[in-house]
């Protein structure tokens, strides 16, 4: 069963709509780049860096969708976020820690 979720950044008011499945929340790649205020090219480089350093497992944390080119798990969003904007990534991590615990029950 897939449920929709929304994250709204407290500092920038930028929002991301995601889909919750049994193990992760998935967000569109373009929304993640927008959340952290960077281009898709910059986000791609940081995503590759996160995969190279082992911060994410690309096979588990990145996937394609029929609706969009690339989806990132909340774990991948955090990894990219910490590489570019620590403050927004920390706020997202707090949301994951508090909001997702309730959603996964």
Poorly predicted runs: none
- The coarse overall form would be globular
The strand order across the widest sheet is 1-2-3-5-4
Q: How many β-strand runs? A: 5
Strand content: 15-25%
> From the structure provided, what is the oligomeric state, counting identical versus distinct chains?
single chain
What is the helix tally?
5
The largest pleated sheet is described as: 5 strands, antiparallel
- What is the CA-based Rg, rounded? 13 Å
End-to-end CA span: 13 Å
Helices and strands, in order, run as EEEHHHEEHH
* Percent in helix: 40-55%
What does the model show?
With 105 residues, the protein is α+β, with helices and mostly antiparallel strands. It has one domain. Helices cover 52% and strands 20% of the residues. The chain contains five helices and five strands; from the N terminus they run E-E-E-H-H-H-E-E-H-H. It has a five-stranded antiparallel sheet with strand order 1-2-3-5-4. Helix 4 packs antiparallel against helix 5. The chain starts with a strand and ends with a helix. 29% of the residues are buried.
Give the arrangement of secondary structure elements.
Layout: E1 3-8, E2 15-20, E3 25-28, H1 29-35, H2 40-53, H3 58-61, E4 62-63, E5 71-73, H4 74-84, H5 86-104
Antiparallel strand pairs: 1-2, 2-3, 3-5, 4-5
Question: Which features does this protein show?
Answer:
5 helices, 105 residues, five-stranded antiparallel sheet, alpha+beta
């Amino acid at each position: 069963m897939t449920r929709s979720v929304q994250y709204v950044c407290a500092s920038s008011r930028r929002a991301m709509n995601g889909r919750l499945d049994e193990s992760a929340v998935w967000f569109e790649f373009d929304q993640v780049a927008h959340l952290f205020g960077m281009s898709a090219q910059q986000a791609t480089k940081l995503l590759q860096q996160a995969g190279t350093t082992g911060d994410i497992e690309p096979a588990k944390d990145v996937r394609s969708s029929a609706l969009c080119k690339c989806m990132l798990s909340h774990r991948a969003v955090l990894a990219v976020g910490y590489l570019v904007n620590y403050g927004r990534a920390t706020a997202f991590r707090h949301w994951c820690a508090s909001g997702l615990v309730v959603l996964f029950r």
